[in-house]
Specification:
Number of helices: 1
Structural class: alpha+beta
CATH architecture: 2-Layer Sandwich
Largest sheet: 3 strands, antiparallel
Oligomer: single chain
CATH class: Alpha Beta
Number of strands: 3
Shape: elongated
Order of helices and strands: EHEE
CATH topology: Dodecin subunit-like
CATH superfamily: Flavin-binding protein dodecin
């Protein structure tokens, strides 16, 4: 029987929401083993001079615990 854990992370990108998700997953992969999925909880953007300057996502990353 597998047991999983969920870690909530926030990531940002100046390109797009998709790029922010990919950046967050890439960073999580550097620290966590056994990632099986993610769930985007929230998407926000910073605006400067009427333009989006940064895309931010908050997501939960699910990974299987070892042992």
């Amino acid at each position: 029987m597998a047991v999983a854990s969920v870690s909530k992370i926030t990531a940002a990108s100046s390109q797009s929401f998709d790029a922010a998700v990919r950046e967050g997953l890439q960073r999580a992969n550097a620290t966590l083993r056994g990632i099986t999925g993610l769930h985007v909880l929230e998407m926000k953007a910073s605006v400067q001079n009427g333009q989006i300057s940064e895309y931010r996502v908050t997501m939960e990353v699910t990974f299987v615990l070892e042992g």
